[in-house]
Specification:
The chain is an alpha/beta fold. Helices cover about 50% and strands about 15% of the residues. It has a domain at about 20-255: TIM Barrel, CATH 3.20.20. The chain is built from 15 helices and ten strands. The strands form two sheets. It has an eight-stranded parallel beta sheet with strand order 1-2-5-6-7-8-9-10, with helices on both faces. It has a two-stranded antiparallel ribbon with strand order 3-4. A hairpin with a 7-residue loop joins strand 3 and strand 4 (about 90). It is globular. Bound molecules: zinc ion.
């Protein structure tokens, strides 16, 4: 099996020949290829080149093409900072009051430069690897996350309690935004689609709020990916132990979960029905841990999923650029031995 077949098998519930590996490593890949985050985000060729070099160095199976978490927010007018050595980020919203929700202009995300760069990078990678390596075109953020950036997280959490009706209106607007990126990404030839819904985890909102405000819109996006004929992964940061059932109900083909989520609990709840992607701690284990830490943690996670083909090894979230390459090599070596 090649990397493409290995990941595809895990997604379809067929036993791969060995543990499939996908890395959430865009920051590290850019740094190792010699690019600043600014050079990376501005040039699809440099994005593609970073991942190509990373595959050559580490020999893993699937690329997650990620750039930052604010591209769709930027496309709808959220002011974005573009640091030279960090991924782009946002601090300010673009919708000062939910009362203005009806005045939001229609948006076409394809008109935003960074959406086009992201799409082109996926096209280049798919062209280069064809069906050798699996290409996952991440489509930035899911609706709940975009809404929180349009309003700023502080205001957004107040909105959810104080103005449910308009909160749902904003989420509907954001669902259109994410759907547009999903449709555009599907046209690139990407093998899989995904979104992050970073602030929808229970570190920040209650399971009841997740079920009411995040999950229904994630489900619409999952359906949209499936209408495009592609499998879909949902990523949520932090601890998702108490919303695993609801995440399963989105219909996603895979859940990519952070290290705070109990992998054994995820194995029990997902029941081999959908694929688990994760969940080595990117910071304390991969970036700052010893080789032994990496080895022990990787073995532990692989063992939890030993009885199901529906497992893809990855970090739980974005791997820091400061991660020693020896630690990534160790994680991959351990996985290849099993
Ligand atoms: Zn995350």
């Amino acid at each position: 099996m090649n990397g493409f077949e290995r990941i595809k098998s895990a997604l379809e519930g067929r036993q791969p020949d060995r543990t499939p590996i996908m890395l959430h490593n865009f920051m590290m890949a850019a740094k190792e290829a010699g690019y600043t985050m600014e050079e990376f985000r501005e040039d699809p060729k440099k994005i593609a080149d970073s991942f190509i070099k990373s595959i050559e160095k580490y020999d893993y199976d699937g690329i997650m093409v990620d750039v930052d978490t604010v591209t769709l927010a930027g496309s709808v007018g959220v002011p974005i900072d573009f640091p030279v050595n960090e991924p782009a980020r946002s601090h300010l919203g673009c919708l000062s009051s939910l009362d203005n929700i009806d005045n939001l202009p229609p948006v076409k995300v394809e008109n935003y430069k960074y959406v086009q760069i992201w799409l082109e990078a996926v096209r280049l990678l798919k062209e280069y690897f064809n069906n050798e390596i699996f290409i996952r075109g991440n489509c930035d953020q899911a609706p709940f996350s975009i809404a929180s950036m349009m309003r700023t997280p502080q205001e957004w959490y107040i909105d959810l309690i104080g103005d449910e009706k308009n909160a749902h209106k904003l989420l509907t607007y954001c669902t259109d935004v994410t759907s547009q990126f999903i449709d555009l990404m599907a046209e690139t030839g990407s093998d899989m689609l995904s979104n992050g819904d970073s602030p929808a985890g229970t570190d920040l909102i209650s399971p009841e709020m997740y079920t009411k405000f995040a999950m229904p819109y994630e489900k619409i996006i999952v359906d949209r990916a499936h209408e495009n004929g592609l499998p879909y992964a949902l990523h949520i940061c932090g601890n998702t132990d108490s919303i695993l059932e609801q995440m399963l109900d989105t219909g996603a083909d895979a859940l990519e979960l952070d290290y705070k989520t109990n992998a054994q609990k995820a194995r029990d709840v997902l029941g081999g029905e959908i694929t688990f992607i994760g969940n080595v701690d990117p910071s304390d284990i991969l970036a700052r841990g010893t080789l032994k830490d990496v080895r022990d943690k990787t073995i532990k996670i692989i063992n939890i999923f030993a009885d199901t083909p529906r497992f893809i090894l990855n970090a739980g979230c974005a791997i820091p650029s400061t991660t020693p390459s020896e630690n990534i090599q160790e994680m991959i070596k351990v996985a290849r031995e099993r």
